[in-house]
Specification:
Number of helices: 12
Helix content: 25-40%
Protein name: WYL domain-containing protein
Order of helices and strands: HEHHEEHHHHEEEEEHEHHEEEHEH
Organism: Cryobacterium tagatosivorans
Distance between the termini: 35 Å
Number of strands: 13
InterPro entries: CBASS_pafABC_assoc_protein, WCX_dom, WYL_dom
Amino acid sequence: MPTTADQTPRITVEERLFSLVLALIATEIGLTKADILSTVQGYRQRYLSDGDNANLERQFERDKDDIRELGIPLETVEPPDDPGNNHLLRYRIPKGLYNLPADVSFSPDELMLLKLAATVWREGSLSAESRRALTKLNSLGVDSSDPVLGYAPHLRARDASFTPLSRALDHGQVVAFLYLKPGESSPRRRRVAPRAVVLHGGRWHLYGTDQDAQATRTYLLSRIVGPVVTVPGETFVPDGEGKGRQALDELDALWGANVAELEVEPGSDAAVRLSKREAGKREAGKQDAGKRDAAGTAAGTTMTPNTVTLRTVTPHTVTLHYTDIDILADELAGYGPEVLVRSPLALRQAVRTRLVGVRDAHTGSTQGSAA
């Protein structure tokens, strides 16, 4: 089920345009508008299969203009059996017209930087289109033995499991790894047939079939402990790109369903950072703010005999969507007294447990009071 407009993860304009260009370069016959809106990152999150997509279509029209202004040759192809039917128009970026001009050349240092950028993108996207981009750079004279490749592992060391998982996904190999869930004292061995590796909320997720449970599961790559190894003699048939869309749709739905209500200290680091990700201000909050403004200082000041004005600071309410309660709890605990969790109760308790643990670690106490 698609998320509503106010529950859609934010995709930057640059990311949407880049995803659109990659998709249009990858196709020989072109993509229809419906294909683009339903599958390309930045559109598909708000696409309604049986609803009104007028706003999304207008955004696509603006994006087409932006792409052309960048000098990218976007062309339309009419259906030969139904010319003039705008619904069946196909869009593509012809590869011949997108080649570099013959008089453009790069120095060895420039080629090394381009190769590094393409390698990082490839390792961070699992995109067939980005692999083609790397091949195009190779055709300019950068071979695979270029020493710049030695820098790539340092850039992706945070999720060391990415490379073996992507390799197993490409070859249809079942993998095994140790996975440490929050709250568990030791990791458990998982045997998984990888179906997709996707980026959601700035974190990489493995979507696959747990071979022991015979059910699909989603794993955070950052919670994989130790090496990822292939299981000898166990293979599967890869499902193609459809599983990646399915994984992202499920993560989007989870993100939209989970809402946290927080009170943050105005002007604090927490207020600045968390307000940028706010899910939307509630009308009641706006009305309350208006009432406070209309009341002036009467409700917010106390006059002392020395005529010193003491103003009560009203906490700012922030609502956030999230996919993983433990990751959010880790973040919120780091803000200390700048954040108070109102709901849900499970998040409030998770943050409190972390704060009590920090207190006990510094005081030597082992008695944490109940929430």
